[in-house]
Design brief:
Layout: H1 4-11, E1 20-22, E2 25-27, E3 34-38, E4 45-50, H2 54-69, H3 78-94, H4 96-107, H5 111-133, E5 139-140, E6 147-155, E7 158-162, H6 168-181, E8 185-189, H7 196-208, E9 215-217, H8 222-231, E10 237-241, H9 244-256, E11 261-265, E12 271-274, H10 281-293, E13 305-309, H11 313-325, H12 345-360, E14 364-367, E15 371-372, E16 380-381, E17 384-387, H13 394-397, E18 404-410, H14 413-420, E19 428-432, H15 436-445, E20 450-453, E21 486-494
Parallel strand pairs: 7-8, 7-10, 8-9, 10-11, 12-13, 12-19, 13-18, 17-18, 19-20
Antiparallel strand pairs: 1-2, 3-4, 5-6, 6-21, 14-17, 15-16
Helix pairs in contact: 2-8, 3-5, 3-7, 4-5, 5-6, 8-9, 10-11
Length: 495
């Protein structure tokens, strides 16, 4: 059980200046320049990061390439890699509260959610892929009797990983653990405003026995170190979670360099569809509120568009607002807080711009819409519900990545499908109905990589997460995530 006194002790601990992690050790950058790490909780400067350069990234890539080519990791028996990945998970569990508090100070996620979604999820992910390590087989093809045809699965080489600031440990582990399980070496570029826990994970990996150079971390700005990673001919694939704009840049870098494969988990504008025959409308309202307002809406699969059948629209919106007002927004390191901080001043300004734009286009604000708790020095925003949103409004088409819910009504099932599929995105969706046939029809009709029925959120590691349309390609989680970290090699042997 979480103990507030332990959290309070950790929340004031000094965070020393941070360095890149290259070839198994903390490494200063070539330029000597640093980036201030500002906490969204109160606006204070926690520490500094190295402001990486292309030269720093090149050094990390060279370290990863050397570690792959001498097979210090790829050449280990799968059972040996399995033990080390389990040990990494154990160390994350050992340091879970320390990691969680550090991460919350860095990015503002409410601690009750962060402990489960960050350290807890990261440990579970490393355990999951540790168990996969020695259970991945090659194949024997059904060739002619005088031929032995084999299909080998081999690690791809150097994996470039770029992760966002909202759940750095969880999303980072979704990529690191399967890439390591497959025998690859890695260079990781975390977000500038959420690097601290991933730097710590790299050190824990060495403690667990991961060979030096197999996991390297370079901090800094995307247009500099991210570009250097994307353009490197020694990076074999890119695994990225973030915005569509950056995803397009990475595809361009791949085209300009070595045609490396790019696996992109991009944005979403996920519809949550409420039919009048939903089995429990009060539960649907409560879950819908959490589906957009948890972590201040900074969730890839957030149910940011609420589509409500016309006959229940007004009553449902009233109930949803009632549920949303119960959520306590405040210091994310307090166990009494339900919703923490917006990650940065920049993100908060973007959220507020979207509210203003929605009102300009004719929508109405049912609740929220403003900055709150400004006297704390932190970045907090009221849970916001905007009604009367039309499909051609910016709020229906653009990802906000904040606590802003766009509400629209629909007339029938066909109209619900039309609106649900009315954006370029296709990451997640929700459907609430008591009609089993309708549920299956909606699952088939909605363009999304994940469709919830009578719930929203909560899928585990056993199922893949990936997008359709401009929400990306490739999948994290499940055994399917391993596919992108292997190359297939056929052997045709004449007997």
């Amino acid at each position: 059980m979480l103990d507030q006194s332990k959290i309070d002790t950790l929340r004031t601990s000094v965070v020393p200046p941070q360095f890149h992690f290259i070839d198994g050790e903390a490494t200063p950058g070539y330029s000597g320049e640093v980036i201030d790490v500002t906490s969204p909780i109160d606006g204070s400067v926690l520490t500094t990061l190295q402001e990486g350069s292309a030269r720093d990234m090149d050094r990390a890539i060279a370290s990863a390439k050397a570690s792959f080519e001498d097979r210090r990791w790829a050449g280990k028996a799968p059972a040996e890699r399995k033990k080390i990945l389990h040990k990494i998970a154990d160390l994350i569990t050992r340091d879970a509260l320390e990691l969680t508090v550090l991460g919350v100070r860095d990015n503002g996620t409410e601690i009750g959610m962060a402990l489960k979604a960050e350290a807890g999820s990261a440990a579970a992910t490393f355990h999951y892929y540790a168990e996969c390590t020695d259970k991945i087989y090659g194949e024997i093809s059904p060739a002619a009797d005088d031929v032995l045809a084999l299909v080998h699965r081999q690690p791809v080489g150097v994996v470039g990983v770029i992760v966002p600031w909202n759940f750095p440990l969880m999303i980072g582990s979704w990529k690191l653990a399967p890439a390591l399980a497959a025998g690859n070496s890695i260079v990781l570029k975390p977000a500038e405003n959420a690097s601290l826990t991933l730097l710590r994970i790299a050190a824990l990996a060495i403690e667990a026995g991961l060979p030096e150079g197999v996991l390297n971390v370079v901090t800094g700005k995307g247009p500099i170190v991210g570009e250097a990673m994307g353009l490197s001919r020694d990076v074999d694939i890119l695994a990225f979670t973030g915005s569509g704009g950056v995803g397009r840049q990475l595809l361009g870098y791949a085209a300009r360099s070595n045609l490396k494969k790019c696996y992109l988990e991009l944005g979403g504008k996920s519809p949550n569809v409420i039919f009048a025959d939903a089995p429990d409308l009060s539960k649907a309202a409560r879950v819908a509120a959490m589906g957009i307002f948890r972590n201040s809406g900074q969730v890839c699969i957030a149910g940011s568009r609420l589509l409500v059948e016309e006959s229940i629209h007004d009553d449902f919106v009233a109930e949803l607002c009632k549920q949303a007002r119960k959520l306590k927004i405040g210091n994310p390191l307090s166990l009494e807080t339900d919703v923490g901080a917006v990650n940065s001043e920049r993100q908060l300004a973007q959220n507020l711009w979207h509210v203003d734009r929605a009102l300009e286009q004719g929508a109405q604000c049912a609740m929220g819409g403003e900055r709150i708790l400004a006297d704390t020095g932190g970045t907090y925003m009221a849970s916001t519900v905007i009604t009367g949103v039309q499909l051609d409004h910016d709020l229906a088409q653009q990802e906000v990545f904040g606590p802003v819910l766009a509400v629209s009504s629909f007339s029938d099932e066909a109209d619900a499908v039309r609106q649900a599929n009315g954006t370029v995105f296709g990451l997640a969706a929700g459907v609430w109905t008591s009609d089993l046939s309708r549920a299956h029809r909606m699952i088939g009709a909605i363009r999304a990589g994940l469709v919830h029925v009578n719930t929203y959120g909560g899928s585990d590691l056993t199922v893949p997460l990936g997008g359709h349309g401009q929400s990306g390609n490739g999948h994290d989680k499940s055994m399917h995530a391993l596919d992108k970290y292997f190359d297939l090699k056929s052997a045709w042997i004449q007997l």
